[in-house]
Amino acid sequence: MANTTAVEELDIVIVGAGLTGINAAYRLQTQLPNHSYAILEARDSLGGTWDFWKYPGIRSDSTMALYGFPWRPWPYEESMAGAKAIKSYIAECAASEGIDKKIRYHHRVKAANWSSEEQKWTLQLEITCEDGVTEEKQIKAWWLLACSGYYSYDKVLPPTIPGIDKFQGQVIHPQFWDENLDYADKRIIVIGSGATAITLLPSLAEKAKQVTMLQRSPSYVLALPRKDKTVKTLSKWMPRSWAVTINWFQRMFFETVFVQFVLNFPNAGRRFVIGAMKSQLPKGFAIEKHFNPRYNPFEQRLCFCPGADFFKALHKPGVSIVTDVIDTVTSDGIIVKTGGEKIEADIIVTATGLHMEVLSSTAVTVDGKPVNETIGERYVWNGCMIEGVPNAGLLTGYTAASWTPGVDVRTRNLIKVIKHQDKTGASSAAPHIPESKRASMPAGPMMTLTSTYARAAMKRMPLVAGIGPWKAGTNWVQDVWAMLFGSVKDGMKYSSGDKDKAI
Questions:
Q1: Known Gene3D superfamilies for this protein (predicted)?
Q2: Which bin fits 446, alpha (ψ -120 to 50), beta or left (φ > 0)?
Q3: pTM over 0.70, yes/no
């Protein structure tokens, strides 16, 4: 039924109450305290990824010293934490700053239309009440921040697995994991070789009779220490706040150096990572077959595992890797093409990829013209705004480094834009490229990952030119420099809504 109450107006609406949305809220209320805001969350709890995903072993894939909030650092020694611990941490941080009171749960943003006449967004909401009845509501907002990441919660990349309908056991995708699934003493095949599969294998091996990771092509996997005792050690000689700051910067330094080394010297980086994997694997393991990717590190995501748990699992009987192509699925297993080998299974886990979309399921329009369908033709401005879309932030983190430093610097860049509007009286700000310049600009994907799911999403992702502000950013040092000293006028068109008034 329709809600006929007056339309609510806010300065800023944040969509998503995950880590990205909570971080954006903190930056807004501390740097723009005179602007009203609310966080709209479609689910019944905060946490985003860490509330949604339920598969065994779900954890961070980067060190928590960097993944945690810069304004309230991760307080525990566990370096790569599990989902429950991360969600609890996010909740504590939100409560400590009063951000939790700004969250409106069961509020799904179905559509968002920018009106140049009103100089505002009109959001169409679907609100689920306690009795399950849904209501519709409108909210007007000056700014809209999309903080839901780039993975869909509702759908996955459809896996093409010949004969999968023949299988008489259970088929499950990690995204829709059934927490009541009993896999003790079962034979399990995990199809895939990405971060999800790397996480699942050691966790499933704790109870399952047999776990086989069936991969079409290998991945790079590096082990990180399970505990980070740097802060505890440094705190013996200095205030904890100093120790935390030093630890953050040294972690960022080493991560940046490592990422840039591997990106700029891929052959040397490849030798280093393969050498590290070799030292962790069982003696005589077929490294050339199972851990020799065709691509360079960071062309697809480099996987990490805490305390080498992935490699330790491969020392156990009943845990193995098969690198081959699926010929067909049978009623009780999978036959691969090389030699017709059959892998028997009771459960098949399809960790084959996710569906990527930067605007989630929200239908976005500007003066009635659709944005979603043309987003693959639009450039991204400093990794945080989309060409031709006024007063809207698209906040995502790094893919080749820890997520949070990237999303934080992009949030701060947006705040610079809003502050410039406050100073000049501009009511709208939209990235803009003159047609004469646009025709000669390079056009590359916002994400350079070559994973199957990333390639499938190319048309749903904005473009980058690699010049000026038309970049996504992969280096925190460079991005912070650009944020601090770059001009918010470069590549941006400001307007007051009054055609006769120039900004």
A1: FAD/NAD(P)-binding domain (3.50.50.60)
A2: alpha
A3: yes
Cβ–Cβ under 8 Å, residues 442 and 419: no
Residue where the block lists tokens 């069982």: 282
Task: Return phi, psi of residue 435, to 5°.
Answer: -55, -35
Q: For the segment 267-313, what is each residue's pLDDT rounded down to a tens digit?
A: 999 999 999 999 999 988 999 999 989 888 887 778 999 999 999 99
Q: Which of 127, 133, 90 is nearest to 110 (CA)?
A: 127
Burial group, residue 67, by CB count within 10 angstroms (0-12, 13-18, 19+): buried
Which residue is listed with tokens 């610097």?
Answer: 409
Alpha-carbon separation of residue 329 from 141, 323, 325 (angstroms): 51, 16, 11
What are 49-82's pLDDT values in tens digits?
A: 999 999 999 999 889 999 999 999 999 999 999 9
Is there a contact between 63 and 79 (Cβ–Cβ < 8 Å)?
Answer: yes
- The Cα-based distances of 239 to 72, 212, 236, 243 in angstroms read 15, 48, 8, 7
Among residues 464, 479, 476, the alpha carbon closest in space to that of 62 is found at: 476
SS3 355: strand
